[in-house]
Automatic annotation (TrEMBL):
<dbReference type="InterPro" id="IPR036691">
    <property type="entry name" value="Endo/exonu/phosph_ase_sf"/>
</dbReference>
<keyword id="KW-0378">Hydrolase</keyword>
<dbReference type="GO" id="GO:0004386">
    <property type="term" value="F:helicase activity"/>
</dbReference>
<dbReference type="Pfam" id="PF14529">
    <property type="entry name" value="Exo_endo_phos_2"/>
</dbReference>
<protein>
    <submittedName>
        <fullName>ATP-dependent DNA helicase pfh1</fullName>
    </submittedName>
</protein>
<keyword id="KW-0347">Helicase</keyword>
<dbReference type="InterPro" id="IPR027417">
    <property type="entry name" value="P-loop_NTPase"/>
</dbReference>
<dbReference type="InterPro" id="IPR005135">
    <property type="entry name" value="Endo/exonuclease/phosphatase"/>
</dbReference>
<keyword id="KW-0547">Nucleotide-binding</keyword>
<feature type="domain" description="Endonuclease/exonuclease/phosphatase">
    <location>
        <begin position="324"/>
        <end position="428"/>
    </location>
</feature>
<keyword id="KW-0067">ATP-binding</keyword>
<dbReference type="InterPro" id="IPR051055">
    <property type="entry name" value="PIF1_helicase"/>
</dbReference>
């Protein structure tokens, strides 16, 4: 019976080897899910660094055997929690390397054979040598160099899996006689059938329009975004092709301080407000204008109202006989405060005989929602002869609300909402004729 248990293949023993050969500085893989949230799972590649010998806590057992193995994973983060949890054991073993992770023996029970109910328990280190491994075991791994042994029965799927484990073609080596797999057809390949169906019957129609899609020499594109900290996301904003394609970039909640520098190539900052407190808070606005446009731009009005944590900012600029007004109102700021600022900005525009007026920004007023603030906003825009240009069925935040709005006296202007990778607010933009 013992002899029979020793000869069982590891496929029938839950990947528990009877004889596990250990060699320091050799590649292994973890054979079981030891600590999945910590990255130590079945197939995790590692290099064996040290073996700790001792005795199992069993009666009459004085044999010194490997009781613990220290391995180094490809990623330093793998095993970090395990190392922290077992730090006393690591210290007792005299290990000083910070990225060596202890792998301890585990026990697994399995049936001796199908004809008996005899259970065998194997106590072993959950490691498998992996200088060579099956294609199935390699599915979660990536290597700089691999050697694939070919045989006549290798299917197209297995060949693809094997060859895709390598990081570059220069590191791929094939051994054996290559036999070209059968060509994929609609009859023998379900993946091809599904791809064909999707191309012919289920094509998605992309509906988002970006400023760079409409930008030309005969128009001006103005973009507004509640950026939720320019200080945190400046690198993303400064290289985003959508932002760079715009002529005017208006940002709110920059969380900026006066000493911060936010220079973008080919743009000039013409208006800026910053946090007044030592700590960064949800304050700050910033307006960029492309350099070629500077001779045609004039700051018509700028006002910032602050009362504790409540604040609102309105900036109005003119260009090519058009006025664009940027709005930011914090959630609890009273509507009357913003209303007064907007009235002053609109009056300034009319006094300069500019009647093509666009008002855009974060109003923090939910559009078309039963709310006194929305009623007041709608009445104000009607009196100002401004219409909502954005699609009211869309949302401007990740919270399914439409609070970033765009109004204009010119209903021919094209405006839309697109996605953000940095903020829970979505940028909005408008295309103005020159």
């Amino acid at each position: 019976m013992l002899s029979q248990a020793q000869k069982l293949q590891h496929k029938k023993t839950q990947n528990m080897q009877y004889l596990l050969k250990l060699c320091v500085e050799t590649k292994y893989i973890v054979s079981h899910n030891i600590a999945v949230p910590d990255g130590i799972s079945n197939g995790s590649p590692c290099i064996l660094k040290k073996v700790i010998y001792g005795q199992l806590c069993e009666k009459n057992s004085r044999e010194r055997i490997p009781i613990r193995a220290y391995v180094q994973f490809e990623k330093e983060s793998t095993g970090e929690k395990t190392r922290q949890r077992l730090q006393n054991i690591i210290k007792a073993d005299g290990i000083t390397e910070k990225n060596w992770t202890p792998i301890q023996r585990i026990c697994r029970s399995f049936s001796l054979n199908e004809n008996t109910h005899i259970q065998v328990t194997r106590n072993q280190l959950p490691l498998l040598p992996s200088n060579a491994q099956t294609i199935h075991c390699s599915q979660s791994c990536t290597y700089d160099n691999i050697l694939v042994f070919l045989n006549k029965t290798l299917s197209r799927k297995l060949l693809y899996t094997a060859c895709s484990r390598v990081t570059s073609l220069s590191g791929l080596y094939l051994s054996g006689i290559y036999k070209k797999p059968a060509r994929a057809t609609l009859e023998n390949d379900p993946s091809l059938r599904e791809m064909t169906r999707m191309r012919n019957e289920a094509q998605l129609q992309f509906s988002l329009i970006f400023p760079e899609d409409v930008k030309n020499k005969d128009n001006t594109v103005v973009l507004f975004h509640n950026v939720r900290s320019l200080n945190l996301h400046f690198e993303n904003i400064s290289c985003d092709p959508t932002f760079i394609a715009s002529d005017v970039i208006m940002l709110a909640e920059t969380w900026s301080k006066p000493e911060d520098k936010y220079d973008i190539n080919n743009f000039t900052i013409i208006s800026r407000t910053d946090c007044k407190s030592p700590k960064r808070k949800a304050f700050g606005t910033l307006v960029y204008v492309k350099n070629y446009l500077l001779p045609h731009v004039n700051i018509l009005f700028q006002n910032e109202s602050i009362s504790g944590t409540n604040h609102s900012t309105v900036v109005a600029l003119t260009m090519f006989s058009k006025t664009v007004i940027m709005v930011y109102k914090s959630p609890k700021t009273a509507w009357n405060v913003l209303k007064q600022q907007l009235q002053q900005a609109i009056t300034k525009s009319l006094e300069n005989h500019i009647y093509d007026i666009t008002i855009m920004g974060d109003f923090n007023i939910k559009y078309q929602v039963s709310d006194p603030n929305y009623t007041n906003l709608k009445s104000f825009m009607t009196e100002a002869n401004c219409s909502m240009l954005l699609d009211a069925t869309k949302v401007s935040t990740d919270h399914s609300s439409l609070i970033d709005l765009c109004f204009s006296t010119n209903t021919l202007n094209n405006a839309d909402i697109f996605e953000s990778v940095t903020s829970d607010h979505k940028p909005i933009w408008i295309e103005l004729g020159m």
